[in-house]
User: Fold this.
Amino acid sequence: MIKIIIFSYLALVVLIGTLSNKFFRGTGEDYFVASRSIGPFVLLMSLFGTQMTAFSILGASGESYHRGIGVFGLMASSSALVVPVIFFFIGTRLWAVGKRFGYVTQVQYFRDRWQSDALGSLLFVVLVTLMIPYLLIGVMGGSLTLSNMTNGDIPAWAGGLLVCGVVYLYIWFGGMRGTAWVNTFQTLVFMILGATAYFVIVRKLGGLDTVMQTVAENNPELLIRGERINFWKMLTYTCIPLSAAMFPHLFMHWLSARSAKAFKVPIIFYPICIVIVWVPSVLLGVMGTIDFAGLQGPAANSVLIDMVARYAPGVLGGLLAAGVFAAIMSSLDSQSLSMGTMFTQDIVRHFGNQEMSEKRQVLLGRLFVLAILLVTYALAQVANRSIFSLAVWSFSGFAALLPLVVAALFWKRSNSTGAFASIITVAVLWAYFFISASDVPGYTVGGLGIMPVAVMLIASSAAMIIGSLVGKPLEKAIVSRFFPDQVHSVNSPH
Amino acid sequence: MKSLPPAVVYLVLLAVYILHNDLWLWSDSSLFMGLPVGLTYHIAYSLFATVLMYVIVRFAWPAHLDAEEAGEGRHD
Assistant:
């Protein structure tokens, strides 16, 4: 029964993606950013769905299993404040500049803003490198879900392959519009089914009071932050949601908005969506310690699936598994599409044929998405870090690049020297911390609880400021294009 | 409609950011509304973020961005 439901769900998702193809206009801009036509509700659902990954569903419950309710404060409530603030200050402005100059990727903007091809190429390499762990967690989460829900009837390798195949099909047909539509559907699915799972499981465990009492008796440390999450960790973890400012897939979703006003709904309602998804994930992770004691390290990533399989078998279990799939695919699609867009626009088109036909842009985009999914799938077969840990490293790198976008949007004096200094600083520090942490579970700087992202962010900010002050200022004519005294029309000369 | 001065917006955001670190509940395992009080606090914090965002959108919206023309295409 579970298999039938999961396969039916996947077929439905492909159908929605296929239907969106009816509105496809055959242009690159339509394929990559849906002709900048997405309205407020679909924008909220697609932005939120893109942000919620296997990390939020499986990783959060796995981490809560080990560290308790403090995980919500670490990542969820900080995101509830930080991410909408980023949409407000950065997303809206990037939408405007993207609309004005016709950008579809971040690299196009930064190249143009600071007049440096080399900078764009370096940024391209760094963004793709940081995106790999983020892509990996989607495929790993899909493998894990299908394997656990079918008691191993469908092996992990087949689960990952299925997720990649379905995502590819609807990206092929629908591009950004298909992705946004499917994300809207999938976000609603995993929000509704996540909440349902929570209530069903808590009820079967005897009610919230009984469950909390049991946890308090067996694992009281899971109900507080205590020593597992110290002050510095809590404080510096709030830097990680800053990554939203530099995610390539969020950038593309921002550009797909119909107008600046379309951002108002996502800005206001994003925190509520966070609560709906993260509270059940965190609590079910904590409750999982009652029935599935003794899970070590990444093994805890499956605790949510194990609980669903035990307490909600049959039709509901199949639907809940579909909900987990929904969360996974609603991120993997946008990430793959953004990578495919970057390879098409920032490499092939920029360095090769700038007059490339619209049809060829779309074809290349589709082929690059396929290549990215295949590489990700292959890497997922050998990766063995926890989903939470992989995501945190990816987020940390993107968050440390925040000074780039802030300087580009708000600081006229910033230039390519500062941007180079900032990116190189992030790359070096990220590699250093990643290697240092490879043998140290729960690594923090100096063992004090300070997350590496905080150090990287401070260093990259300093590098941006010093580099820009030392470097040659940009010509006024260039700066004035990006800081016009009067609002430009969208058709202003590029 | 009167707009909020940017300085006020920044100060409020900073204050709310600081409130994220609820040191006073760090080791409190008591239950409030059926949940550990540390979790209840952060759920309330998240819901307050929605209220705050509404106020900022309402009274500090960058109106100059609205001047960018809407796309010509079909709207979803």
